[in-house]
Amino acid sequence: MDLNASVIIEACRAGAEEAARLAPFLDDLDGWDGADCDTGSNGAATMAALEAAMDSLDPRAHLRDALEAAVETIIRRGLGHSGMALGALFEAWAGALGDEHHVTPVVLRRMIAASLSPVASSIEWSDALAEMLGGAVREIQDLGATLPEVEDVFSRFSSQAQIGLVEATNEATGRIDPGGAFVALVLACIDASMRGDAGILQSFTAMLADLAERHSRAPEAAPPPPGRDFTVDIILEGTQEDLDALLARLGGLGARLSYVGRVDLFGMGEWRLHVDTSAPLAAHPTSGQVIRFQVCDARPDAQIGIDELADEGLSHRGVRLLQRRPMRRVERARVIACTSAPGLVEDLARAGAVVFLDLCSGDAAGIVSAATSRTGVTLVATCDEASASLVGTVASVLPSPAPGVPAILRAGSRDDLDVLAVARACAPLFVPQPGGVEAAPTLARMLRDGAHDALASCASAPLPPGGDPEGIAEALAEASRSGGDSWRLLISRDDDGPYTVATVRQLLSTRDASSTIDLETWDGGQSGPSLVAGCAS
Fold first, then answer.
1. In terms of domains, do 34 and 183 share one?
2. Do residues 122 and 268 both lie within one domain?
3. What residue stretches are annotated with the DhaL domain (predicted)?
4. Which of 214, 247, 274 lies at the terminal end of a domain, its last residue?
5. pTM here?
6. DSSP code of 481?
7. Does 247 share its domain with 171?
8. Within this chain, do residues 69 and 30 fall inside the same structural domain, yes or no?
């Protein structure tokens, strides 16, 4: 057959459906090893983005075009280390194809041989993934001078990858590598697409069921290891030198990272980095153009679930994947916080929000990707007109999860302290059970009410430049209109922080000398004026 873009297009369609159905299972595989229980969810979101991106591609296009489109999509909308691993695999394949006009068996073998050697990407392959893909590559290399058809070449590669996944399963603990299972699923979808045989996916599901049956137990999400409290996603445009400078700094932080990229003929590149670190601001690039800087708390939600004593298990394609009682999944409400203040990033993330620092006007895909949730409802708090405009554009095109319920709810926040108030009030909320889109109307009401109450109980005002005491007193009077008994102060990058804090404290003490001053302060580092807010308890 003529191996072209149609193979990847169809594989992404099938992969999106399979990954969505298998997401709870792959999440559980993550939890069996005390990890963060999100590999399946991240894989499903990545495949859904790939399916959408492939809709605009000509099926008759070259295979390389489809792979490059997939890499571009994963840079913008891929999730998790598993998404980055798939992007690196596709980038390696696209690079190996080069300028070849036709994908012959020889060309395909060369493409497969490059699987673990991407040019513009880097992945910390798990031992299971490295052995799985490495063994599959060796299987193709061992063909020697034999030249089977392209379908047979890839089928051998995919089948050997599945064998490698089985062999990499820990005999003592029964741990199945979730990232390896996700990549093996995508390979099986490509194999099924090339051969036009859905039975390949049936066999793959049966293989997973057989592995899971040996050690089926309740998953448990664990906190991140020391030094990796936050997950940071960065999109950087620039030169190789810009990337190298960032990688050197991240290496000095001891961060775990994966990145996927592409470089044009002029040496300009675009890279997506997925970083686990306890120093998110230190991970901010100092050169090149930062398209996205997104931070979230890497800790799991308060609990992964409550045993509902149901016994239906989880089945897919008629195969019973899990014999245990399923866990009811508990998740936090999805809240996105857009801020221009670096000093608020950690506090916003600790509250449970997905944080965008200096949201780029060209990164609508970042909002779309971050808004992915099981309920389909997301609350977004913006700090200025530019971020509000971008979010409004995204909100207008996303489909409603339920009648009368928009996918994106916009809080009425106007500045960074408003964003903080909304995040603290709404990000800790849990999705009402049983969750999913059925909970969307209730969750939307909770988020609307929470954001409204938070903004009603806090009033903020900008401080005058130069630290004029009379101007500061006027700002405090404006911020006190909420009747608040606590205060928040966000110092800008151009302000004299110690002087401003001291002045605010003195002026507050003159308002009520009999009470203790409840004042939270942040070295915000944002451009523009410092901000003060009065908040009611």
1. yes
2. no
3. 6-192
4. 214
5. 0.90
6. G
7. no
8. yes
